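User: Second chain of the day. Same drill as before.
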Amino acid sequence: MPVSDSELTRMFEHVLTLSKVDETQSVAILKSHYSNERTVRAAMDAAQRLKACVFIIELPSFNHPIAMGNDMTAYCGDTALTGNIAAQRALETADMIVDTMMLLHSPEQEQILKSGTRILLAVEPPEVLARMLPTEEDKSRVMASHKLLEQASSMRVVSSAGSDFRAQLGQYPTVAEYGYVDKPGRWDHWPSGFLFSWPNEGTAEGVLVMDVGDIMLPFKTYLREKVTLEIEKGFITSIHGGFEAEYLRDYMAYFNDPEVYGISHIGWGLQPRAQWTAMGLYDKNDGMCMDARAFQGNFLFSTGPNTEVGGTRKTPCHMDIPLRNCSVYLDDTAVVVEGKVVAPEGSVLK
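Assistant: Same format as last time:
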């Protein structure tokens, strides 16, 4: 159901408070013509209610010649901020940025974060923001699993559909998303509620089977048939199946870049208010579909870039693929069993 402007502002005030915004802070709101104007106004009003020093930076839209589609994750790397040093310096002066435009996977975002500025991405429809309004309990839930993933040296994923995937861990950091930014240099996304790391280079091996009902992003489609990925030394080497496998092969080949086949981040969803079914109720141009990435118990793997954690794969094609009904093991200890999250103490969460 629709969210009123006053409620949207109240929600932003809640999230900015969790993000430690007060009268000592400066908040920049980054927007472009495609930003949700209600989101921009609510962020501005909420920051003012908290007596922060607030300003807006609006950048022109950017479309790379090889980009396809309107989804903000369908092309990674260059953004409207690329080469705009004046705007970047202005953003670096802020304590916090509310990004309604999408800087993710850009070197400019990484440079801004290194300056100590924290960034909160907010591009989902207001109704989705409301349903997954972040809480301190969300942070506690994600950080409990973060500790397990951070200490693990390996991950294995299996499923009745045929997945049998393994990777070594430890070369790259573990990232937790819980919906607000409460530390200098932190990036997060409202809404969220999941965590992930990256395989050690060259160690991802095995088979991942995308089953009927699993989701391919940025296509924003539910699979109607199985697609099998064979993975060797960190890269997808073969894609098997019917039409949907052919579609995926053709899409990835379009970029003419071998690095699009690299396995990027791997992790699992921890947000009980995110819904596997939600994507079917929205237009494909409505946000990024964070429900699909965060719903509790999914195994989320991605392909393509890893530069945001110091890797070398700077490639424009980035796929996020959440799988249902998988079991995820860290050093042979289950953290997800057939799509059900296992609490740190060993019990299955309902």
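DSSP finds eight helices and 20 strands in the chain.

User: Great, on to the next one.
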